[in-house]
What we know:
Chain A is of the alpha/beta class.
Amino acid sequence: MKISISQSSVWAKFFEERDYYPHINKCGFRYIDYNFYEFVGTDASPYMDKDWEEQTHLTKEAMDKAGVSAVTSHAPKGEPAVDTEGIARRTLRSIEMCPILGIDRMVYHPGGIKGMTRKEYIDFNVSYVRRLIPALEKYGVNLLLENVGRWDEPFYDHDADEMLDLINAVDHPLYHACIDTGHLNLAEGNQYKTITALGDHLMGLHIQDNLGAMPVQMLDKPWRQDLHLPPMTMGVDFDEVLQALIKINYKGAFNIEPESPRAYDKANKFAVNPRLRTVSVPLTEEYYKWVYDIAKYMLGQYGIEAE
Amino acid sequence: MKLSIWVSPAWRALDLNDRELYGHLKDCGFSRVCGELNAPAGKEEAEALLSAMKDAGVTLVKERTSVLGKDALIPIIESCARLHVTQLVIPLLSAENWKRDEYMEKNAAYLRSLAPVARENGVTLMIEHAGHFQNAHYTHSTHELLHLIDLTGEDGIMVNLNIGAIGLMDVDLYPEIRLLKGRIGAVDMNDNFFGMALGIDKWREDLALAPLMGFLDYDEVMRALTETGYDGDMNLLVNYPRVLPKESPYITERKFTCFPLPLLKQFTLWMKHTCEFIIASYGAGLEEEA
């Protein structure tokens, strides 16, 4: 199984996009989850310019030169139910970029607004996905619905039943699922039950860890909940995850999505000439080598060969 | 400054004997360790532990205890002497119905009763900030903590500055730590994502991540510590990784019940390098053990 890594914002503290890749390779990773989320996150992105194709080819060359390739990707950030036109525009551009970058799948967050009924949620999201389908078909890209949200959030996307409702409503051979183990833990979902229920629809993973659902007092502090720590370090049941992946004969990448060490960006009058806003490049590399070795260990424990 | 490391539950879960455990910590570059002492150590037990540590080339520098009450704590203090440990972090008394003044008076009397025993045994008693989850305490702020120590009238009671615990209170760390000039006995380094709210479980609030993994501002911490002239132990009090296996009706076999030794050592080395980076970034010297 291919071990891939989401491109943490930690690297952005040090490098421009094309300079990330040699460092990711140095940590052991040969595969990445391409970060449309940030790189095409706004219309100011260079990939939204007229010369986007040339820019994309330059990025692919940089990835090739560094010895890494993208096996999955994350759609541009934003809330489709709020900025529908903007998100759709940037997602369509990202889909166009996929064949140049060698990517055949893109994970996205569905749209949801507080107060939406389940029917309104399904109707909106079916309509949104159908806008993207011609491009998905033209460029051969699978769109993967990611489970997001705690129970208080305006999404009907917490578990396999809710995800399959939307997948069945869209009913298209290029529309499938990605499970984020951390999000599922926050929503108090069961990893084994959810993964096996999705079965062949599961084509992507966001492997990350946290301590589970938070009490209602904490709902305004999302950074305290969706911790994005490396697997096997907190409370997600990764025995359930691995055994379920074997059960469904999962063929996608084992994609790790940590966001640590965190970069502390807050202005602070007491931190004069700050030097510790994040760890250094060598420490970041040492950390991500450890993350790679965790993933390799996890697969090895279940007799799965890591690529 | 000197680096030391607390023997966290992740290490205890590996079921190593003392020689193996301390040998692995030494491999990771730590020759100073801090332990948990929740039951008295007799002469033989203490000698066996000291022998294992000597073989591994490590020294025990500080103990923490969760033992409460004078009668129960005196044997712990005496055990520290047998273990040649000079610092002991102790918890404070509390009760849901105590108001602030009663809390302060009872704890001041409690500390005064322990101080002579600690002195006789060459042990410095240390107390630390309470977290949100310790609802019945009145030592969440530095002012409260220092007020309590001053009430005792004892010079020898020091503050164990636990960065993660003070950080949970969402305070500015620089001015808070500056208030502790001359009162810090030892520093515990860890990180979290700020405090939560009263009534949150300790295990979810007090994450005790490695420094620079969370949101606490270590620039504030290091600026304050260097300005106070602190040059004692910087102890890694990190309760991470945690593997919390649960009951599952869906699986028959567990392979992930603890964090494996090679990966734990790899992470411990990373923590050591990170602490060296933090300390060096502020020009503070790091003493190497002989």
